[in-house]
Structures are given as structure tokens and as C-alpha cells.
Amino acid sequence: MLKKIGSIESNAYGFNALALLAESSKTFSGDMLALDFQECTTFDANMAAPLYASLTCYNVEKVQAVNIRHDIRVVLTKNGFLGELGFRNISDSDQTILPFRRFKRNEGLSFANYLSQYMRGRGIPRMSAGLTKRFLQSLFEIFQNAAMHSNSQSGIFVCGQLSPAMNKLDFSIADAGIGIRDSVRKHFNNTINSCSAIKWALEEGHTTKTNNQPGGLGLKLLKDFIRINQGKIQITSRYGFHEISGKVEPFYKLDYDFPGTCVNIEINTDDTRNYALKSEIKSSDIF
Amino acid sequence: MNEQTMPAVRLKAAEILGNDLCISSEDGQTLFEATASLISEGKQVIVSFEGVSMLISLFLNAAIGQLYGQFTENQVRSHLLVEGLAPDDMELLRGVVENAKKYYSRPKEYDKAWAVEGDDEE
Fold first, then answer.
1. What CATH code is carried by the domain that includes residue A26?
2. Is A282 domain-assigned?
3. CA-nearest residue of chain A to B18?
4. How far apart are CA A147 and CA A132, in angstroms?
């Protein structure tokens, strides 16, 4: 059975399309899904991660990609996504790809190995040591947040793309879990909507941990870093989409239910700020 | 021997955890338990992050922030030191500690504020 997929860019329209694809699984029957790319003229490589989250909604034995344009096929084959569907992978000769991978929620160390392998020397010569450290810290915070809160049975999906000409690096971390909304609803026994739940989660100190532990700094730190770096964050969770970029920080309600959460982070790789602090802080000043 | 003159016990995070990454809540819990146990015995503790290549707030919440749920601020201040952190990681730790102090001083405050939220239209 065919399911059409349109262009997928890193924006609210792209996530709306992926949410529609996921919702369409409710009326789908059959053992094989043929994903029809005929109307897809653009596909941002990092969006392979949330695409995979949508595909987890289909209880099928096989997924095929059909009618796919050559350039999009190259992008999705290079980053290993189509390899998941049985295509033969193409080597990343430009070394601009952080390939698509699936991790179990307890595989934080494997994720670290992945980043170590693909961030090092991968055509990212201009990123300063300070910027690289803050970027990696951000990715670990997002990954571990997903591991802790998503309850995603199918794991966590990641994918990234460097665009040297535009001095940007895009990375997506997606899960097929309960979403921030349901995590907050369970914690407070309320009926908060998806956008309000994202807004809540971004506030410093807000956490849905149930083990009497403080938390709720990860997303706040990410937001602070991206503002300094002049990059971009997109947080999509269930019906909610939020973008933090420059002075504009809109929330949009999606038309369909995205199956989980995806955080897209885009950094300005040309940022030469020294993120290391100049002043020393003593241990005795902290406690 | 009083507490002030007791030799400090140095806990090396990288050795206790068996790796140089301080990124998981579980590992944070392991370090917390080791630290809390020593503080409970009245010992001075130096947590060393020498050789740690990556540190995030989620780890520090469990490893250090959680101490404020078990001990008073005075107890933590007089029994705990950290070493081996870069200045930006010390800044991160400071944020974690401030957040933990707030959290344990009013853990239910946010709950009250958000429990009334009922804006579901999905």
C-alpha cells in the first residue's frame, strides 16, 4: 500500500507532514508500506530521524521507498537512512554527514562513541574547541532527556548534516515516545496541551522527574547556548512545534499528532567565541 | 579527631564510573551514593573530575544536586569540595547547585502552579 510523502524541511510544515504520515498508520493495513516520494522535491537530511519516528507507527514487515528523485536518494542513502530500508549505502566522501542511527534508551555511551567517530575531523575544521564542547554537551542533554522521559519503546533516532557553505550544522534527535505533553500530564494529573507543555519544559528548574531529584536545566542551557551562538532550536512534541531563533520564538499547533518528540538543533559553525570562562570559580564559592 | 582535621577522602569520578563521561543519571546516582555515604560518616570528601571529558547538568543533578535533599547547605559546604573542573564546568555546577537549593526549599511550588492548567484542545 502506497503512502505519499511531500517535501520535508526542518520547519513546522515538515513536521506536520511527518505527523500526518504517522496518523495515517491508523487506517493502514497490509504487510508492506511503499513510501511514495513522487511529490517530495526537498528533504533535509537530518529530518530522517523524525521520519523514522513516524514510520515506527506502521506495524509492517517491510518499508519501501519508491519514485524517489536522484538527489534525494543520494542524500538519504549517504546518511544511511535508506540503508535501513534495504538500499545499498553510498560512502560519504565529503564527510558532511552524521549518519542516521537508532539507539536504545540506555545506550548513552554508544551515542558518545557515535559522536566521537563522526564529529572528529568530519569537515568541521572551523569549529572552536569551546563551541564543539558546548554543542556536544547540548546533544548529550537532549539525548539523555529523551532516554529518561520519552518512554520510547523503539529507541532514539539521530541524524545530522553539515552544510559547510552555509556555516551550519543541523542535528536531530527524535523518539517515538509519549511526548512532553503526556509526561507533564502524568506528573501533574492535568490536561495541558502540547505547546503549553513545551513552554513549561523550557523553564529553568521544571522537570517531570518522579524520584525527588532536581532537574530541568538541560533545555534551558541549550536555549541559552543557541541564543549566544545565533543558531536555532526546534522542539516538536505531539501537536506542538516551537522554534527558537533570533528574536522570534513562535509556537505552532500542528494539525496532526507527531508520535513523540524531536529536537532539532542548528548551530552556526563559524562562531569563534571562546565559550571557556575567564574567571575562576572556587569550589568553596559554589556550595 | 574532629571533622576539620580529618584527612579528606578523594573520590575520582572517572575511576568510580569506569569511564570519562559524566552524562547519565545512573552514573550520577552512583557518585551520589558514594559521596553521601562518606558525608554521612562525617568525612570530608573531594570529588575529583580529573580525566573527565564530558559533563552535563543531568549527571550533576543526580550526583551533586541530590545531596541537598539529604544534607543541609552547611553540611554540604563543610564536607564537600570538587576539583578538576574547567571554569565553564564550574559555572555549570554552580547552576546545578542553585537549582537544587531552590528545588529542595519548595519542591511542590511548581506543581501547584501548573496542576490547574487545563487547556487541552487536542
1. 3.30.565.10
2. no
3. A109
4. 22
Q: How many residues does chain B have?
A: 122
What residues have CB less than 8 Å from A175, skipping those under 6 apart?
A53, A146, A150, A152, A155, A156, A157, A260, A261, A262
The chain A residue lying nearest B95, using CA atoms, is A217
* Contact assessment for residue A34 and residue A16, using Cβ atoms and an 8 Å cutoff: no
- Structural domain tally of chain A? 1
Out of B24, B116, B121, name the one closest to residue A108 (CB).
Answer: B24
Q: Which helix (H) or strand (E) holds A64?
A: strand A62-66
Judging by beta carbons within 10 Å of its beta carbon (0-12, 13-18, 19+), is residue A29 exposed, middle or buried? exposed
Residue type, B36: A
Pick from B30, B48, B54, B56 the residue to mutate for testing the A interface (most A CBs within 10 Å).
B56
Range of the domain at A106: 2-274
Is A85's Cβ below 8 Å from some Cβ in B? no
CA dihedral A134, B62, B26, B15 (to 10 degrees): 80
Q: Is residue A151 part of a domain?
A: yes
d(CA A166, CA B49): 37
Has residue B120 got a pLDDT over 70?
Answer: no
Tens digits of residue pLDDT in A125-149: 567 788 888 889 999 999 999 998 8
CB A156 within 8 A of CB A174: yes
Q: How far is CA A13 from CA A27, A193, A203, A231, B38, in A?
A: 22, 19, 26, 20, 54
| A280 found inside a domain | no
Q: How confident is the model at residue A94 (pLDDT cuts 50, 70, 90)?
A: confident
Q: Do residue B65 and residue A214 have CB atoms under 8 angstroms apart?
A: yes
